[in-house]
Amino acid sequence: MTILPDLSDLIIEQVSVTNGVTVTVRAASPTACCPCCGTICQRVHSHYTRMLRDLPASGRPVHLKVDVRRFFCQESTCRRKIFAERFPSLTLPRVKFTLRLQEALREMGFELGGEAGARLGKRLSYPGSPDTILRLVKQDQLPTTPAPRVVGIDDWSWKRGLRYGTLICNLEDNKPIDVLPDRSVQTVSAWFEKRPSVEIVSRDRSSEYAAAISKGAPQALQVADVWHVAKNLTESVQTLLARGPGRNTAYWAAYRQCQGKCQKRWNPCWNKKGVLLALVASN
User: For 64-83, how does the pLDDT look when each residue is reduced to its tens digit (9 = 90+)?
Assistant: First the structure.
């Protein structure tokens, strides 16, 4: 990692090292671009100093002292008559941190959270309060995901026995998609209505989820998840064994007799990695 950020479009005028490192810089170009109309301007209105924090160097805090110029916009129709020059490769407008320091704090927030990230940053001479770290995390753009095809839906408790939400996962890549605030039919069906690409939904034995999927995604095939298939099988075996050996013999005889007449078959539903998702009943 370099000690200083990318200063290719800046001129370093002075470097002072005491308890920290202070680097005085100014823009190399004699002109600046208006952020509103894009006009290249060269008439300078005034100057002011902007202080930026950067990544520490050998445990010492690094400050960038930037001489910022204000320009007159020469476009008569532009609504902004005076503007300050910007440094897109260094920082964002109205921000006190450099881009690479913001990225470091954001990664710290993703890994540790706000409070723990701020405590670690204090030891490493990284500036930033817990609120600042969380704000940077919230500003990060979420990665785009393809339209889900096979999803799993189940409830989870905000407060056990009182309030429940809904967790929806993509069963093809085993990643969460969304968290819904409740498990009502209206909320779940509204979510499925916005995603017509869903073809298979694996769910539990909840009648609310069954009604919500039928309403929001009538084209989707509803299947039982593997855990509930195993649970149903366990309960059936326990019920069968509890009847006694005599009844078991009669039961299996009746089952073999009607097995050939039964038109339903249980077909496995696999994902792309070859993992069994559910069993689907077909005629």
Answer: 999 999 999 989 899 999 99
Model confidence pLDDT, tens digit, residues 55-65: 998 888 899 99
End-to-end CA distance of the chain: 63
The whole-number pLDDT of residue 132 equals 93
Q: What sign has the CA pseudo-torsion 181, 190, 276, 265?
A: positive
Instruction: Check if the beta carbon of residue 73 is closer than 8 Å to that of residue 85.
Output: no
- What stretch of H or E contains 111? helix 99-112
CA–CA separation, 66 vs 16, rounded Å?
14
Return the beta strands (E) in 160-256 as ranges. Answer: 163-170, 175-180, 200-203, 221-225
Beta bridge partners of 155: 166
Radius of gyration of the chain (CA): 31
pLDDT of 109-119, one tens digit each? Answer: 999 999 999 99
